[in-house]
Amino acid sequence: MEKRNLTCIRCPLGCQITVTLENGEVKDVTGNTCPRGDQYARKEVTNPTRVVTSIVKVEGGVLPVLSVKTKDDVPKGKIFDVLDEIKPVVVKAPIHIGDVIVADVAGTGVDIVASKEIAAV
Amino acid sequence: MRSYDVIIVGGGPAGLAAAIAAKKEGVDNILMIERDDRLGGILNQCIHNGFGLHTFKEELTGPEYAQRFIDQAAELNVEYKLNTIVVDISKDKVVTTMNRNEGMVQYQAKAVVLAMGCRERPRGALNIPGYRPAGIYSAGTAQRLVNMEGYMPGKKCVILGSGDIGLIMARRMTFEGADVQVVAEVMPYSGGLKRNIVQCLDDFDIPLKLSHTVIDIEGKDRLTGVTIAEVGPDRKPIPGTEEHYDCDTLLLSVGLIPENELSKQAEVEMSRITNGPLVDESLETNVEGIFACGNVLHVHDLVDYVSEEATAAGKNAAKYVKDRYGAEAGKAGKVIEIKAVDGARYTVPTTIHLDNMEDKLTVRFRVGAVFKNSYIGVYFNDERKQHRKRPVMAPGEMEQIILKKKDLEAFEGLETITVKIEAE
What we know:
The complex is a heterodimer of chains A (121) and B (424).
Chain A: E1 2-7, E2 16-22, E3 25-30, H1 35-46, E4 49-50, E5 53-59, E6 65-70, E7 74-75, H2 79-86, E8 90-92, E9 100-102, E10 112-114
Parallel strand pairs in A: 5-8
Antiparallel strand pairs in A: 1-2, 2-3, 4-7, 5-6, 6-10, 9-10
Chain B: E1 2-9, H1 13-24, E2 30-33, E3 49-51, E4 60-61, H2 62-75, E5 79-81, E6 85-89, E7 94-99, E8 103-114, E9 118-120, E10 136-138, H3 139-149, E11 156-160, H4 164-175, E12 179-185, H5 194-201, E13 208-210, E14 212-218, E15 225-230, E16 243-246, E17 249-252, E18 256-258, H6 261-265, E19 290-292, H7 303-324, E20 335-341, E21 344-348, E22 351-353, E23 360-367, E24 371-380, E25 383-393, E26 399-404, H8 405-410, E27 416-422
Parallel strand pairs in B: 1-2, 1-8, 2-5, 8-19, 10-17, 11-12, 11-17, 12-13, 20-27
Antiparallel strand pairs in B: 3-4, 6-7, 7-8, 9-18, 14-15, 15-16, 20-22, 21-23, 23-26, 24-25, 24-27
Helix pairs in contact in B: 1-2, 1-7, 3-4, 4-5
């Protein structure tokens, strides 16, 4: 039996939740005040995901870097794989919000898209 | 002198929403003035997501949130100037601007909306002993360098202060390959949002040391290290708790100060608690026709609330131009005062002209400490009229109450509305 302690982020209350796991399966959730905490804790221990935001280099733009994000959540364990893959990327201006910068980043099935408008110089 | 109906000072989230609202209210002759080379203000460097949950029901990054408003402003043909700084606003609403192409130009406005935002509290305000080497940045400066200019401030990092920008930068610096060793917070609680503590620190095992502060800064040319110590309830360092950290970068996330030099030049009365203007139900200051919104008025936690507040300010400025400008009498009728006591630090607004009030009024405030299982009490004179339970309230998160005009009208002899935090 494994116990994991989490802070719920569904509201400002920030409940300290303890999840009991057995062979990777959730056996018990305690410490939450509401059902949303239970839901958060179960997802967080079995399949935690995050939107990753970072930057890539820009050529010929009014700014030297472009802000980007993963279009959807990616597994938390893949964050640094995503960052490694976009590190060498250089894009050419002009760029528009939503432009796909890297398709299927780090084998997650999720695209990296531009989150800023950058005009060409 | 060229004249405008409404001049909006600042083209960030507050200025944009105010300009859009003024246009939509039917006042066309408006000008928004921005000192940076683009609209959007601080949102341009806030590349993380989580903006717009209340406004657009989706999580956007800062630049995406700004673009939605920039697009709307463009559709409505809002006139604006970039790279232009306002150097003076007079009580008579003469706005003096400067830029490289036109030099110094003055405009006469009928109404002015103050939307200048805030700036970060600097090292000089903290009295940290030690040397003054390179490598010490405010968190927002570091954020701009990394996210907009493509520079890394350093490789080995300590962060003082757990405001949201500091927490966000702990993750950003980690993403860019820096080693973020610790975040120290002098208060016994964090000034940032819970989700940022979890997703920016816990996710990357960055320790948050509450009731700790930096007591020494070392390094002559470049920062080489800092000493952190625990503080007691009096916020003074406890001898024997000192810990040394080798680092080349210290980021400060120790509070924001509304940027009100221009407001003061216009003789706008200020609150000593928010460091922003005192305003009434229309977000109008003591100077008739000058309105304020966003972080220049009081520091907000979520940009969604800035947009909401600025929309009201822009609309009210437009209404002033249409209905009250040039009229002899100011706002008529009864004035009700709003007071914050017992845990509530301030309210925005602080006065209500009852005749001028809309059906509903949002009053925003912050608490001065962490309160658990407490109540927000709203009193009309001495009678309690609202009593709402809140599981938790913290200084880092804004609170609000809604007042209804019909309730205020129905209460005979109403002079003061008091907002307080109560145990039961």
